[in-house]
C-alpha cells in the first residue's frame, strides 16, 4: 500500500511539473505573411512599401509587400533606419536615429489567424512606445525624439498552455492513483468505524 501511495504522489507531481513546462513552450502558428506599414507624423504614406524608394536592399520588403515570416521590414532615409524583424514567435523593432526622428505608427497584419496570440512586450528602450492588438493587426506607436540614439522594443507571442500528449498520460495516471488512494482510505475508515 505504501508503494502505491508513493507512485501516485510521484505521478501527480510529475504531471504537474510537465504541465508547467508545457505552458512555457511556444506553439508556432504558421507559416504566415505579414502586411507591414510605417507612417511618420500622422501621414498616409507607407514607407515600408518599396515603391516609395526608402527600402534598403536585403530586407524582406525590398521586393514588395507583404513579407514572409521569418523576415525583416526596413526603412532608411538620411535621418534614421527603422527595422521590424519577425520570427515565428517574436518581433523586434529598432529605430536608429542620427539626430532626431518624427513620431511614427507601425502596423502589422498577419495572414494567419491567432499569429499574435499571447502577445507580450518583453523589453522597451524607447521613451516609451504604446501598442494594441485588434484581431490579427498589431499597432505600435512612438512619439519620436529630438536626439540621436537607438531604441529597441521586443515582443513575444504564440505562447500556449496546451499540454503535450505525454503530459496528459502522466496527469491522468497521477489522478487515477490519487483517486484510488482516496477510495482505499475511505474504505479503511468505514471498516474502522464499523468495528
Structural commentary:
This protein is α+β, with helices and mostly antiparallel strands. It has 2 domains: 2-25 and 161-194; 33-156, Chondroitinase Ac, Chain A, domain 3. It contains 2 helices and 10 strands. The strands form 2 sheets. Strands 2-1-6-9-8 form a 5-stranded antiparallel sheet, with no helix packed on it. A 5-stranded antiparallel sheet has the order 3-4-5-10-7, with no helix packed on it. A hairpin with a 3-residue loop joins strand 3 and strand 4. Helix 1 packs antiparallel against helix 2 (165-194).
Rg over C-alpha atoms, rounded to the nearest angstrom? 26 Å
What are the segments in which pLDDT stays under 50 over at least 5 consecutive residues?
Answer: 18-26
Major beta sheet, specifics? 5 strands, antiparallel
Number of beta strands? 10
Give structural attributes:
five-stranded antiparallel sheet, Chondroitinase Ac, Chain A, domain 3, 10 strands, 195 residues, 32% strand
